[in-house]
Design goal:
Elements: H1 3-16, H2 18-56, E1 60-65, H3 78-87, E2 92-97, E3 99-101, E4 105-107, E5 110-112, E6 116-120, E7 125-126, E8 131-132, E9 138-141, H4 146-150, E10 155-158, H5 160-165, E11 175-178, E12 181-189, E13 203-207, H6 208-214, E14 220-226, H7 232-247, E15 253-257, H8 258-301, H9 303-311, H10 316-357, H11 370-396, H12 400-405
Parallel strand pairs: 6-13, 10-12
Antiparallel strand pairs: 1-14, 1-15, 2-14, 3-6, 4-5, 4-11, 7-8, 9-12, 10-13, 11-12
Helix pairs in contact: 1-10, 2-8, 2-10, 2-11, 8-10, 8-11, 10-11
Length: about 400
C-alpha cells in the first residue's frame, strides 16, 4: 500500500467519527494556535519597541553621572561634555544636559502639581529629524535656541497637555509660572502619549542652567548624539574613557547607547517568548498523548481488519505505516486548524492592543511569520507521528490468526 492509499484511508477513518477526531485534535489545535499567537505578539512587540527606539535615534548616547559623593573634588560638568564634542566631531555631533527640576508649575489660578520640568540645551531638538532626543516633534512655534540657553532666558516649550488644559489650545506668547518665575511659551510639542495629567505630554522644557538653579534630581544626566549608528560604540568609548580618567571607577557613571538598549530589550523579549512557547508546547504534548490514546483504541477496534490484511499478504511495515500516516494526518489537520485559529486570534489581539495603546493602524501589529507557522506545523506533525508510533507498532506485531479470531 503506497502513501496515497494510506492517506485516503486515514481521511476516511477520520470522517467516520468526526466528533472523536475533533476532540483528538483539540490539544494539537490549542497548542499550535498558542504558539502562533505568542510568536505573533512577540514579533509585533519587538517591531513596535524598535520603532519607538528608532524615533529616539539609533545614534543616541545616554550618560548618567552619579559622582563620588559630596566630599569628592572630582567632577564633570556641562562645559567638559561640550569640550568632548568639540574635540571628537567625527564621533560626537551634539550634547544636551538633561536636568530634572524640582519646580511648581502654575498658570493663572491653577496649579499643575504633576507636571515635569526638564532643563535642556538647544541640541536636545535635532533639526535633521525634526524631533527631540526623546522622539517628540514640534506642533507649533519653535524649540529653545542657543541664545536662550546662553543668556538663561525665561522661555519654555510645553507639552500638548499644558497647551490644551492650561492655555485652551493657544499657548504661544503666553506665560506660565515655574517656581514663581514667569516663563514665556515659545513652542508646543506634538502629542506623543495620551495627553493626560502626569503623562509624557505633561512636560515643560526650559534652559538647563535655569533648571539647575531650581534644584532637584540626583546626579547629572546628558543626552549625546553620535554622528551615526556605526560610530555610536566608538562615541560611547570616548565618553567612558573621559569619565574614567576623572573618577577612576566605573561605579561613578553609566553610559548606554540606544542600540544597546534595543539589543537588551530584544534579548529579554526573546527569552520571555521562549518561556511562553515552552508553556504552550505542553498543549502539544497533551495533544500527542490524546492521539496515542485514540490510536490505541482504533487498533483494538480494527483488529479483525488488521488480521484480514495480514492474511492477504500485508507486511508488518505496511500496517505500521498505515497507522503512522493516520496519526500524522490527524495531527497535521489539527495543526492546520490551529494555524488558522492562531492567525485570526493574532489579528483580533492586534486590534484590541492598538485600541488600548491608542496607536491606531500605525502602532502595534502582531506579525505571524512564515518561519513560526512552518515550525508550529512541523512540530504538530512530528508529535502525531511520534505518539502514533507505539499504536502503529502494536498493530504491526499482531498475530494474524489471533487477530482474525478477535470478536
Amino acid at each position: 500500500m503506497n502513501f496515497t492509499q494510506s492517506f485516503k484511508l486515514a481521511i476516511k477513518s477520520l470522517m467516520l467519527s468526526k466528533m472523536r477526531a475533533l476532540l483528538t485534535m483539540l490539544g494539537i489545535i490549542i497548542g499550535v494556535a498558542a504558539v502562533i499567537i505568542i510568536t505573533s505578539l512577540g514579533n509585533g512587540m519587538q517591531n513596535y519597541m524598535n520603532a519607538q527606539f528608532e524615533q529616539l535615534g539609533s545614534n543616541l548616547v545616554q550618560v548618567m553621572i552619579y559622582g563620588l559623593g559630596e566630599d569628592s573634588t572630582r567632577s564633570v560638568d556641562a562645559d567638559d561634555m561640550y569640550a568632548l564634542v568639540e574635540k571628537y566631531p567625527q564621533y560626537l555631533s551634539g550634547v544636551s544636559p538633561y536636568v530634572t527640576a524640582s519646580a511648581k508649575v502654575r498658570q493663572g489660578t491653577e496649579d499643575f502639581e504633576r507636571t515635569s520640568v526638564y532643563g535642556v540645551s538647544e541640541d536636545f531638538y535635532r533639526d535633521e529629524t525634526g524631533k527631540t532626543m526623546q522622539g517628540a516633534g514640534l506642533e507649533e512655534g519653535r524649540f529653545l535656541r542657543y541664545v536662550d540657553v546662553a543668556r538663561h532666558q525665561n522661555v519654555c516649550v510645553v507639552g500638548s497637555f499644558l497647551a490644551e488644559y492650561a492655555f485652551q489650545g493657544d499657548p504661544l506668547g503666553q506665560t506660565i509660572s515655574i517656581s514663581g518665575v514667569p516663563y514665556t511659551v515659545v513652542g508646543v510639542l506634538e502629542e506623543s502619549g495620551d495627553s493626560t495629567e502626569g503623562s509624557g505630554d505633561d512636560v515643560v522644557y526650559i534652559p538647563y542652567a535655569n533648571a539647575q538653579r531650581l534644584g532637584g534630581g540626583y546626579g547629572d544626566t546628558y543626552m549625546m548624539t553620535a554622528t551615526d549608528r556605526d560610530t555610536s560604540t566608538a562615541a560611547k568609548g570616548i565618553v567612558e574613557n573621559r569619565l574614567m580618567d576623572v573618577y577612576q571607577t566605573s561605579d561613578a557613571y553609566m553610559v548606554m547607547t540606544s542600540a544597546e538598549m534595543m539589543d537588551a530589550m530584544d534579548s529579554m523579549l526573546d527569552t520571555l517568548m521562549m518561556i511562553l512557547i515552552l508553556i504552550a508546547a505542553i498543549s502539544l504534548l497533551v495533544g500527542g498523548i490524546g492521539i496515542m490514546n485514540i490510536m490505541l483504541v482504533s487498533v483494538t477496534e480494527r483488529t479483525r481488519e488488521i488480521g484480514i490484511r495480514k492474511s492477504l499478504g500485508a507486511k508488518c511495515r505496511d500496517i505500521r505505516s498505515q497507522f503512522i500516516i493516520e496519526a500524522g494526518t490527524t495531527s497535521a489537520i489539527g495543526g492546520a486548524i490551529g494555524i488558522v485559529l492562531g492567525i485570526i486570534m493574532a489579528n483580533v489581539l492586534t486590534n484590541v492592543i492598538a485600541l488600548v495603546l491608542g496607536t491606531g493602524n500605525d502602532g502595534f501589529v502582531a506579525v505571524p511569520t512564515a518561519g513560526g507557522i512552518g515550525v508550529a506545523f512541523g512540530v504538530s506533525v512530528a508529535v502525531g507521528i511520534l505518539f502514533g508510533y507505539l499504536p502503529a507498532n502494536k498493530a504491526a506485531k499482531l498475530n494474524p490468526i489471533d487477530a482474525l479470531r478477535f470478536d
